[in-house]
């Protein structure tokens, strides 16, 4: 391979993935140029399989040929590799610990709980709704009256959470759960985040997310008894227009 | 940061590997701290106050301010007391450390726990999973990110050594209690050598409980678990109460076992 070919930044991603969107937001905040590559999750590229051999998942950020995997690890990497601008974590070590704790909580809870909302039905869905509302209220409590989760500066926790807001429409349509009604204090925060170009350019149209969810639901109805099916096996059939480059 | 003027206290449980991670990091940094033992199934008011969301150990209190979740605590310790760093300085190397820490917590640990909590075919599958995970680490030591290193952190113990090491002693314990082979030195020579070197370190010896206490503890839980299971092919998941076959009278005991099992994972 020619020497120049490994230089630069490549993000292996999938358009609707909230985890991929975190990386896009972070790169945009830092004003860093990169090449976006859409992966077909049913037919993963050799580059993805080579870059993330352990999990074979997106997102993967490849920087000068070296892969970084897992979205929150990627976001922290981006912050540490470009320390001269737009810090994504606070300087104070206690505040950093709080940011990591809450980002990790979003990781542990939002995706799985949100997924249950559109996958399950009946009583199981009602239970899932209660669980999801609890998580929203926890986050609402932590945000309080602050501008962002970290205070005045947009940062790690905001980046971890905001992609899931593109799924709120789907949660309402599938589970009759209005995140805005259940956690009204998050509403101004969502609006504030969406006013940032890094966020508005990185998040998908909620209606497109809903179309995608409906597609997954149709495929999931082929699996019985409410067992959670794994979207990465089936999403290859639903493609979005490919972006070849993105400048934040 | 001045070690003498700040007050450090940490809440932990003696058999909990995440507690050992924090203790080891504090010892490596030469920090003075007060320790409070917590009952893993009956949290104290202090623990509930300082870890209200997860209600679990470990919880570190620095001048009264709590930090919870062991990986968060370890990085907090490293960034607050910057002598003897346990994380590398380079951003890419830091990302690698964080990746393998997640691997330890999300893949290897639960696989090891499943060996302990399952029987028959389920246990055999769990052992295979542990071997697959160890192969990944062995490969990194042989030809990947950690090639040629004595420890994952290089010449000295680093954060990933702490995370993997504080919990790897369960491998030997489970090998004896369950009579399975988990870390064959011929199959995993580098991992085996690393573990041996890790366990020889002075601070590690002072942190990890004596093996006979760990054996007794593990045997006790295994016995309780087997006596509660009404179906020998049931493989309850770590941390979650078993469903289906257990009677309602056993639910509380099963929950207790789930909580105890959680403390055993890497």
TrEMBL record, chain A:
Main enzyme class: transferase
Gene Ontology BP terms: glutathione metabolic process
Domain Glutathione S-transferase C-terminal: 123-197
GO CC list: cytoplasm
CDD domains in UniProt: GST_C_Tau, GST_N_Tau
Similarity comment text for this entry: Belongs to the GST superfamily.
InterPro entries for this protein: Glutathione-S-Trfase_C_sf, Glutathione_S-Trfase, Glutathione_S-Trfase_N, GST_C, GST_C_Tau, Omega/Tau-like, Thioredoxin-like_sf
Catalytic function, reaction form: RX + glutathione = an S-substituted glutathione + a halide anion + H(+)
Molecular function as annotated in GO: glutathione transferase activity
GST N-terminal domain residues: 10-80
EC number: 2.5.1.18
Pfam families given in the database record: GST_C, GST_N
Residue intervals passing through the bilayer: none
Domain of life: Eukaryota
Protein's UniProt name: Probable glutathione S-transferase GSTU1
Entry keywords, A to Z: Transferase
Record's function text: Conjugation of reduced glutathione to a wide number of exogenous and endogenous hydrophobic electrophiles.
From TrEMBL, chain B:
Domain GST C-terminal stretches: 90-221
SUPFAM superfamilies (UniProt xref): GST C-terminal domain-like (SSF47616), Thioredoxin-like (SSF52833)
GO terms of biological process kind: glutathione metabolic process; toxin catabolic process
Top-level EC class: transferase
GO cellular component, one term: cytoplasm
Pfam families for the chain: GST_C_2, GST_N
Any GO molecular function: glutathione transferase activity
Enzyme Commission (EC) number: 2.5.1.18
Record carries keyword Transferase: yes
Keyword Transferase: yes
Reactions catalysed: RX + glutathione = an S-substituted glutathione + a halide anion + H(+)
Keywords tagged on the record: Transferase
Domain called GST N-terminal: residue spans: 6-85
Name of the protein described by the UniProt record: glutathione transferase
Organism expressing this protein natively: Musa troglodytarum (fe'i banana)
């Amino acid at each position: 391979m020619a020497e120049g070919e490994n230089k630069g930044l490549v993000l292996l991603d999938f358009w609707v993935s909230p985890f991929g969107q975190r990386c896009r937001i972070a790169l945009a905040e830092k004003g860093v140029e990169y090449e976006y590559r859409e992966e077909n999750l049913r037919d993963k590229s050799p580059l993805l399989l080579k870059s993330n051999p352990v999990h074979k998942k997106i997102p993967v950020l490849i920087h000068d040929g070296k892969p970084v995997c897992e979205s929150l690890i990627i976001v922290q990497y981006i912050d540490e590799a470009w320390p001269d601008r737009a810090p994504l974590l606070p300087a104070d070590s206690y505040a950093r610990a709080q940011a990591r704790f809450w980002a990790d909580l979003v990781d542990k809870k939002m995706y799985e709980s949100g997924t249950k909302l559109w996958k399950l039905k009946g009583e199981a869905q009602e239970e899932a709704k209660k669980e999801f509302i609890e998580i929203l209220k926890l986050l609402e409590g932590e945000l309080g009256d602050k501008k962002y989760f970290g205070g005045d500066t947009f940062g790690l926790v905001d980046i971890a959470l905001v992609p899931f807001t593109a799924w709120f429409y789907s949660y309402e349509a599938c589970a009759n759960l209005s995140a805005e009604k259940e956690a009204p204090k998050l509403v101004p925060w969502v609006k504030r985040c969406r006013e940032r170009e890094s966020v508005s350019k990185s998040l998908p149209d909620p209606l497109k997310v809903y179309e995608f969810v409906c597609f997954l639901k149709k495929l999931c109805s082929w699996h019985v008894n409410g067992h959670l099916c794994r979207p990465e096996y089936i999403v290859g059939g639903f493609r979005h227009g490919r972006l070849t480059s993105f400048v934040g | 940061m001045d070690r003498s003027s700040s007050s450090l206290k940490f809440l932990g449980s003696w058999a909990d590997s995440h507690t050992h991670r924090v203790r080891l990091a504090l010892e490596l940094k030469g920090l003075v701290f007060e320790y409070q033992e917590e009952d893993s199934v009956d949290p104290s008011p202090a623990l509930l106050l300082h870890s209200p969301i997860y209600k679990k150990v470990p919880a570190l209190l620095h001048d009264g301010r709590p930090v919870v979740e062991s990986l968060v605590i370890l990085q907090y310790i490293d960034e607050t007391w910057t002598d003897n760093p346990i994380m590398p300085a380079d951003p890419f190397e830091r990302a690698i450390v964080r990746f393998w820490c997640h691997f330890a917590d999300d893949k290897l640990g639960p696989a090891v726990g499943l060996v302990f909590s399952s029987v028959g075919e389920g246990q055999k599958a769990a052992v295979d999973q542990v071997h697959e995970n160890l192969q990944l680490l062995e490969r990194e030591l042989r030809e990947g990110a950690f090639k040629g290193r004595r420890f994952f952190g290089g010449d000295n113990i680093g954060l990933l050594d702490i995370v993997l090491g504080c919990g790897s002693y369960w491998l030997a314990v489970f090998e004896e209690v369950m009579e399975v082979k988990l870390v064959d030195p011929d199959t995993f020579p580098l991992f085996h050598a690393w573990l041996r070197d890790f366990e020889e370190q002075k601070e590690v010896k002072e942190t990890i409980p004596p093996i006979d206490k760990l054996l007794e503890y593990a045997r006790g839980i295994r016995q309780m678990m087997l006596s509660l299971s009404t179906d020998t092919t049931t493989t309850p998941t770590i941390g979650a109460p078993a469903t289906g076959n257990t009677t309602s009278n056993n639910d509380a005991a099963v929950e207790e076992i789930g909580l105890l099992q959680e403390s055993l994972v890497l």
